Amino acid sequence: MIFTIxxxxxxxxxxxxxxxxxxxxxxxxxxWFFLGRLDAFLQLQPQLMQIANPPGFxxxxxxxxxALSAVVLLLMVPLLTMRQFAEERKNNTLxxxxxxxxxxxxxxxxxxxxxxxxxxxxxxxxxxxxLTLLAGGTLDWGLLISGALGLFLLICCFVALGLxxxxxxIQPVVAxxxxxxxxxxxxxxxLVISDHEGWIYYFSIFKQFExxxxxLVDTYSLVYCTLFTVFFLVLTxxxxxxxxxxx
Length: 247
Prior knowledge:
The chain is mainly alpha-helical. It has ten helices and no strands.
């Protein structure tokens, strides 16, 4: 049933003009920034040739594009997660969903899976741009894979948080603003703290992504992202389960 709900969510997203508009917009933005970094690399190439171990395509192009992608997806995810529970509640279709012979866990996980598969497609499009660089050089596959993994885990965290906030309100716009406010709060904390500064560092979601983007697949970061995602999925399940029980 989880996969059935996920397929339904994917179908509804791809039938929505908003999803296509977002996909087109962000892909154009990523392509523009990618070409800008490629141009910068070509201009730096004479100087790089004089360095013993110069940075390559991956360090100069791939890593900055992944970093930009994290910020762009921070703005994109709330626009899709806000539609999950808040919009259904506003349109009075949530009652039908909750009265169906399906567990709340299956509903929440189905919606989560549908959204993450959608954003996995976004990550795949980004990676496909990088693969074109193979025509003119080589890539650091370890750095590329760790950056893509970090971006996907960050998306999972965003989606789980967005689903929970969407489950709290009847207004999709309020859900989107709430999600943005929370994630911008995380981002501002990340901007003001320095590397490894006290306990705040270990709770910074963007610092964990930064480690992945620098090629460091850290066990703590993997556990952090997993627990962050599971925590908010469980909160969403409990919230919706309570709503079903109280009608």
